[in-house]
Design brief:
Thiol Ester Dehydrase, Chain A, elongated, single chain, alpha+beta
């Protein structure tokens, strides 16, 4: 049965604004870090390769909604899941909590791309070997 992946993130001083609250933009970094943690857990990375060349997953959409402030030294619990696994794209969902209380939630949608010789990305179907690993964390 697919399950969400859980990790934690400590709020660093550099992540806060003048009021000592996590700056809204930092949650996008936290989401990316949690995505990387999940990918490593699945035996993947944000940059992969197969016999045809390099593969990566550029972002095509992101969002984050905030429920309450997080502050310096707070330990945030981050629950990450794949909520949509398409033919070419994958959408990750992130739920942040501090001491059991919701802090923020967000999503990142990425598209599977192969990089051409000129360095430009071209969308491709997610290779089966990657999709099978994503399926473990997919809750759709």
């Amino acid at each position: 049965m697919p399950q969400s992946f859980k990790t934690t993130r400590r709020v660093e001083f550099r992540d806060t604004d003048a009021a000592g609250i996590v700056h809204f933009s930092v949650f996008f970094t936290y989401m990316e870090q949690a995505e990387h943690d999940l990918l490593r857990h699945l035996g993947l990375s944000v940059v992969l390769a197969d016999e045809q060349g390099p593969i990566s997953f550029p972002r095509v959409a992101t969002r984050c909604d905030y429920q309450r402030a997080a502050k310096f030294e707070d330990l945030l619990d981050v629950e990450t899941a794949i909520v949509r696994l398409g033919k070419k794209s994958v959408t990750f969902e992130f739920n942040f909590a501090h001491e059991g209380r919701p802090v923020a939630s967000g999503q990142i949608t990425t598209v599977c791309c192969r990089f051409q010789q000129d360095g430009s990305p071209k969308s491709i179907d997610i290779p089966t070997w990657i999709a099978e690993k994503f399926a473990v964390a997919c809750v759709e």
